[in-house]
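SUBJECT: A protein chain and its fold
Encoding: whole-number codes for local backbone shapes
RECORD BEGINS BELOW THIS LINE
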Amino acid sequence: MQTLTMADDALDIVKSSINLKRRILKSNYDGYKNRLRAFEAKYRMSSKQFIKKYNSGQLGDDQKWFDWLFVYEAFSEINRELSLLRQLRI
């Protein structure tokens, strides 16, 4: 783990920025999670099953799969970023 050094008066700005980023990510997380649930219901498979089938070439190249892939990857990235923010000690 690394240590960040800053002026005392900058700490409030950093905390505020991190909290804003966290709120934005959480909002996006919820939106993408709902979209994933919609895909899962529509195509009757979990996102993990979808990724496995997609990556193995079983699903083809229809636009609907690219849409689901984008949502899945965006959701995964947001989840990763939220996990990193949870590790911060301020």
User: Anything to note?
Assistant: Residues 26-86 form one domain. Helices lie at 8-43, 47-55, 63-86. The chain is about 75% helix and 0% strand. The mean pLDDT is 94.
